[in-house]
Amino acid sequence: MKRDMDLIRKIMLRIEEEYVSTAIYNLKVDGYSADQVATHCKMLYEAGLLADYKAQYAGNELYMFGVSNLTWDGYDYLDKIRDDTVWKKVKDTAKEHGVPLMLDTVKQISTAIISAMTEGAIKAIAGV
Q1: Which one of 2, 51, 73, 98 is most buried, by most CB atoms within 10 A?
Q2: pTM beyond cutoff 0.90
């Protein structure tokens, strides 16, 4: 299955919204199958952005899966891509420059975009 960074972002936003103190079972994301969501949750777990992930299978079919909260690094990553405008700029910048949308490149591009936005805001406040 091909990694889908839009789905990764949607999953992280849903987990942040829904997680209270117990696992979330069979997390649903509109437009995606349970297998797609579960596989991407596993990717988040393997990347250290999700604290826990468990899946149960009946034969070769996914029966159910559960996820816990985001990790500290997961929240840091989500904070960088939460804003729709920033996310669109990240994807547009990567596409424009032929850069693949990978975790590290998304972090670097989003950091640069946020830094530029912050610099612009500081200049506006200072009247420069």
Answers
A1: 51
A2: no
Cβ atoms 66, 54 nearer than 8 A: yes
The answer as to whether 10 is a domain residue is yes
As a whole number of angstroms, the distance between CA 93 and CA 91 comes to 6
Q: Is the CB of residue 15 less than 8 Å from the CB of residue 53?
A: no
The CATH number linked to 43 is 1.10.10
Q: Are residues 17 and 52 in the same domain?
A: yes
pLDDT in tens, 25-58: 999 999 999 999 999 999 999 999 999 999 999 9
Q: Domain range holding 95? A: 83-126
Dist. CA 29–CA 9, nearest whole Å: 11
Task: Choose among 76, 112, 78: nearest CA to 10.
Answer: 78
Neighbours of 68 (CB within 10 A): 17
Could you tell me the two tokens for 2?
Answer: 């091909």
| Residues 53 and 110 both lie in one domain | no
Number of structural domains found in the chain: 2
Strands 53-58 and 24-25: unpaired
